[in-house]
Automatic annotation (TrEMBL):
Protein name, UniProt field: N-acetylmuramoyl-L-alanine amidase
Assigned keywords, A-Z: Cell wall biogenesis/degradation, Hydrolase, Signal
Gene designation: cwhA_1
SUPFAM superfamilies: N-acetylmuramoyl-L-alanine amidase-like
Residues covered by the N-acetylmuramoyl-L-alanine amidase domain: 51-230
Length: 266
């Protein structure tokens, strides 16, 4: 009896250390997926869940931020989804991957920690936008910054999408962000600044980590080797699209509160 009990305790410890903290096989869909199906499947977006290989526990940390990425070298939408599903045990993951035409795949439930932004993983939701983040023009490089659509630049030759890809991916992103802003009470702001760091003997030394809630860029969290989603990412436009998706407190509720005397000043 005692041996059985000890074995149970031991097994529990092992499962906590290895099963919950480390990758546990493919991630599973949670309540987010059902909720978002109601929102996304009403429209034109294709939405599915394909569990990522790598994710872990948040250990109770409150979600207060969304970290934006662009897929860069990982390529287009399908390749990135495949990578997060089939890569090695210590590889990256994100909660969502969004295609240029607005299709979206969820890969990790928001109650779990995806591996996309180093020290920000516990507190954040990670979203990968298919595309590139370069905020400048290099005539010797044929990649095009995804967000230059905003100023009417030509289509991205690496990820051609019929129709207006820029509008579509940003619309899907706004749907997803609006859901989480309301669910976790994430501030609908894009805070300025980035982490401070320096190099010592060729090694990166972190001086002051970035520490802001809201909608942030991967480059702000990890500026020593990441710039995505890039200087041209349309933060203001994203925020205004999200705002338009969050309902004002309904008139009915306000009238009810007024009737109960809850809005009356003394
Ligand atoms: Zn990134």
């Amino acid at each position: 009896m005692r041996i059985t009990l000890m074995r149970c305790v031991l097994l529990l410890c092992v499962s906590i250390v290895f099963g919950m903290e480390q990758a546990r096989g493919f991630e599973e869909a949670g309540s987010d997926f059902a909720d978002l199906q109601q929102i996304l499947n009403k429209g034109w977006q294709e939405f599915e869940f394909k569990g990522a290989k790598n994710a872990s526990n948040r250990w109770g940390t409150k979600v207060d931020s969304i970290v934006m990425h662009t897929t860069e070298g990982s390529g287009v939408y399908e390749n990135t989804v495949r990578w997060f599903r089939n890569s090695g045990n210590n590889s990256n993951s994100a909660h969502f991957v969004i295609a240029r035409d607005g299709r979206v795949t969820q890969m990790v439930d928001s109650t779990r920690r995806a591996w996309h932004g180093t020290y920000y993983n516990r507190r954040s939701i990670g979203i990968e936008m298919s595309g590139f983040s370069r905020g400048h023009v290099d005539p010797n490089d044929d990649r095009v910054d995804t967000w230059r659509y905003e100023v009417g630049e030509p289509e991205d030759v690496h990820d051609p999408t019929p129709g207006d890809g820029y509008r579509s991916n940003l619309d899907t992103l706004a749907d997803v962000v609006a859901y989480y802003v309301q669910r976790y009470d994430i501030p609908l702001i894009h805070p300025e600044g980035e982490a401070a760091w320096h190099k010592e003997n060729g090694e990166v030394v972190r001086d002051i980590d970035f520490n802001q809630a809201g909608l942030v860029g991967h480059g702000q969290v990890q500026p020593w080797n990441r710039r995505d989603p890039g200087a041209m990412f349309p933060w203001e436009e994203l925020i205004s699209r999200v705002e338009s998706r969050i309902p004002e407190p309904s008139v009915g509720i306000l009238m009810l509160l007024g009737g109960l005397g809850l809005l009356r000043r003394k």
